[in-house]
Amino acid sequence: MEAFLHQVVAGLATGGIYASLALALVMIHNATRLVNFAQGELAMFATYLCWTMIQAGWPYWTAFFATVVLSFVLGVAIERILIRPVERAPVLTVVVVFIGLILILNSLAGWIFTYTIKSFPSPFPSAAPFGLHIVSAHELGSICVTMVVLLLVYAFFRFTPLGLAMRAAAQNPDSSRLVGIRVGWMLALGWGLASAIGATAGMMVAPVVFLDPNMMTGVILYAFAAALVGGIDSPGGAVAGGFIVGVLENLVGAYVIGTELKLTVALVLIVGVLVVRPAGLFGRVIVQRV
């Protein structure tokens, strides 16, 4: 029973990271109707920035918050410089831009930081918290950090004028322009916020998977699965999907197929959801008259 509980708690910890990345994917999809395939590489590059600051002697949490700010600025810059010029282009053109961004960030990280695997420090103690052996301090801390981030994002979109304006711009751009909302900048801020959330997920997962330019390859696949399971147009569904995928991945990997084949869980979930319920568990089924 203790081993089972450990797998569940560890699944919740990784599921929170998947939920953060899935939320970032859903935010950009709701604003642009596009899936940001480069979200994982943005998180990876931001994690390298944090590692550089820590190596330079910065305290962990100072480097953490500085990285979040830099990631926000990077997300806004990418939207303004790369995405805005092709926003009315065919979908295939935008997909090519995303693929190019993946290659650029991955190669840039390898060129600057090398492809040598590095250890990334955890801000939490190594000893088990409260004498519990079913959860590590990093897993518990990761869950807490993720929940704080998700609650802050919810409060921002629910209670602040800027958050409400961003929601309006994403849901109905034309009406938003009529009431004076600068839709273009709202979308850019959405990219920045998604990039900052992804950076948080990268810094939380790096102590577990170690730091290298390809560290987010598997993680972003699980995040895609989480977004699809919960609903690609539902922020709350993406969060729920992240926790579901995290726990399911751990349990199936530990008791059914083994850890070597855990990545197939994400692939099976993606294909299964697309076949059975493309809108996801909490997504809206959109019907259009043609």
From TrEMBL:
Pfam families: BPD_transp_2 (PF02653)
GO cellular-component term (any): plasma membrane
Entry keywords, A to Z: Amino-acid transport, Cell membrane, Membrane, Transmembrane, Transmembrane helix, Transport
InterPro entries: ABC_transp_permease, BCAA_transport_permease
Subcellular location: Cell membrane
GO molecular-function term, one example from the UniProt record: transmembrane transporter activity
Domain of life: Bacteria
Biological processes annotated in GO: amino acid transport
Topology versus the membrane: Multi-pass membrane protein
Spans through the membrane: 6-27, 60-78, 90-113, 133-157, 185-209, 215-232, 239-257, 263-287
Family, as annotated: Belongs to the binding-protein-dependent transport system permease family. LivHM subfamily.
The protein's name in its UniProt record: Branched-chain amino acid ABC transporter permease
Organism, scientific name: Ramlibacter ginsenosidimutans
